[in-house]
Structure formats: structure tokens, C-alpha cells
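Late entry, evening session. Most of the bench is empty. Finally got around to the prediction I had been postponing all week. Sequence below, unchanged from the version circulated by S.P.
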Amino acid sequence: MTPRRDRLLIAGAFVTFAISAALMHSYSVFLVAFLEEFRWTRAETSLAFSISAFVSGASSPFVGALVDRLGPRRLVLLGGGVLTLGLLGSGYVHALWQLVVLYGILMTLGANCLGLVVFVPILSRRFVSNRGMAIAIVQSANGFARAVSAPLAQILISAIGWRHAYLAQAAAMGLLVWPLAALFRREEPPAPAVVPRAPATGDAIPARPARHEWTLAEAMATPHFWLLFTVYLCTGLGSFFVSLHQLAFAVDVGFDKLYAASVLGMGALLSVAGVIVTGTLSDYIGRELSAVLAYAVSIIGVICALFITGPDHHWLLWIHACFFGLTWGARGPSVTAKTADLFPGPNLGTILGVITVGTGIGSAVGAWGAGWIFDVSGSYRLAFVASIVSYLIGCGAFWALRRPPTRQMV
């Protein structure tokens, strides 16, 4: 692949992932609108997002297997169409179960076909020596999406109402499906491993055997697979004990909705730089150390939120938004690159998809758990403490990945 096509591949993956992620992340703003209109509890209002996170993780192995066989172009077409239908239906929601089906299942399946699992295998094959940087650039689209989704969704909802805001998003996604799919060409199959032939003279020289690629079963037989699963699980818990309810928390303590959404959006924008820097650093200082630094910064951001008690704490809200936002998704490039380092081969999409189930479980439990904790205690403080503990466990699991796995001989 030429340098120009390399750049187009990264740009296409970035734009596609950013659009789908922005549409999904806007739920944190719609959550506040749902609370006002339907008077659901925090746990009930979080349910659709929790189901979404679980479905995202559970469907990742299927999406990973599909991309190994069909390539990203067809999945973008499929996912974009499904996501558009989900957005369209969401504008007519009148009951919680409808929101669960449309956002939690339909939109999630569509967005997953436009997500990172679709692009990591091709990026890992095309960018070997700077794999961490390439994945980090595309992963940073998630932070960019969070940055723009909150203020834009709040402006849309304030101007035309949340129902028409969903319809406007559906129209935009419907118009973009074909252009996004056109950014990806049919990928050439990876070159097979070559076994040198012995010379015809009869004096055979030792031939280096072809590398046997990892299968899902072989990967699952190693402790490294389950350590990666734990990292994904705990990172999802730590992130979503906070993320989904950030705006609701800020509004509860007295901040203006648009102001809080703008502050949190600006903090999320920092993750574009944070993800790229940590992902690139992982190519030079190691995946583990890069991830540990990202965990530390996130923990500082959550600690700041623990001390916010009123709207006069503007500076604490800014510090929380900046530190938590700076490293939102920053562990992603290190984890996905580490997965590609440990389990390379044509089955990487499937392996990564199964490991990503951990993210779905962690995100689902964290998002719903934070709402349930608020309903029981009237505060998000305990959820923030649980976030810190989860991050610490994930940090320990990642550090244990320093040694490469040993293939089980059968």
C-alpha cells in the first residue's frame, strides 16, 4: 500500500468511527431530556445505554469475524443503514422498552459495524512498526466524537426538541452512509507466510518454518487473553461509572446544562491529543507503561469530581473534565496494539472481538450501576470511588502482560 493510500485508510477510519461514536455518545445529553419528560429513575434511564454497552461487547466477536471475511467497506454499508433506522425510530419513543430496543440493540449493532473492531485488523497489518500510533489516531476519533456530541446535541435539543434532534441525526447519517463506505476499497488479502524451498543441488539448507498464526482457541488457552479481558472489563467499569452521568451530575450540583456540556465537551476534545500521544508513546516506551500513565491521569480526574459540591467549583469541573477527558480512550490503542502484538494473524479480528466483550460487560455494569447508586444514595460519590478502584485493578492486569504468551502445544 502506498503512503497516500495509508493516509486515506487512516482518514477514512477516523471519520467513520467519529461519526458513529458521536451519535452514540450523545445519549448522555438525551438522558437529561428523558429524565425531565418521562420522570424515569436514573437506573431506568441508564438501562438503554447499559444494554447498548453489553450488546456492543457481545456482538464484537461476530463483527470481528465478519470483517475478517467481508472487509470494512461492506460492514460500513450495513452498519450505517442499521444505525439510520435506529435513529429514525428513536424520534418516536414513548416507552422505556422502545428505547432499549432502538438504542440499546439496533443502533448499537449498526455503530459496532462502524467501530474500532472493524478497523484494527487492517491497520495492524498495514502499520507494523508504528502500529500503536496508527491505532491511536483512529481511536482518538472517539474523543473527538465525545467533544462535539454533547454541546451539539444540547443545542439541537434546546432548539427543536429531543425528538426532532433524533430525526435530524437520522437524516444526516442516511446521507453519509454511501460516501463513508466509498472511503474503503476492497483490501488485498494478506501475503501468506513463505517457506524457502531447498535448492535443487541436493545440499538442502535449513529452512525457517512459516509462522503459525494464532487461533481463537490457542489465544484463549493463555493467561494473557484473560488478562486483556480483565483490562477491558475494568476499564469499561472505571470509565462508565463516571462518563454517562457526567452531565447529569454537573446539572444536579447546580451548573447550567449548556455550560456543563461545553466544559465536558472541551475536556473530551483533549482526548484526541491524549490518545495519539499515549498510543505513539506505546511504540517507544512499551504498551504497559503507556497504559499505566493513562490510568493515573484518569484517576486524578475522578478524584477531582469527588470534591465538586456546587456550581462555584468551576475550576474543579474544568480540571475533572480535562484530566478525565485527556485519557478517555487513551488505553485503547495500547490494549488493541498489545492484542495485535501478542496474537497476530488473520484471526486477529475474531480474537479482538471476543476480548472486547469485557468492555461491553464493564461499560454496561458501570453505566447502570452509577444510576442505581444514585437512586439508592442520592449521590454519585460511591460510583466515583468504584471507578477509581476499577482503574487500579485494570492497571495491575495490564502490567502483568509484560511477558509474551507461550502457545500451548497440542
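Two things to note before I forget:
The chain has one domain: 3-185+215-399.
The first helix runs from residue 3 to 25.
Will write this up properly tomorrow.
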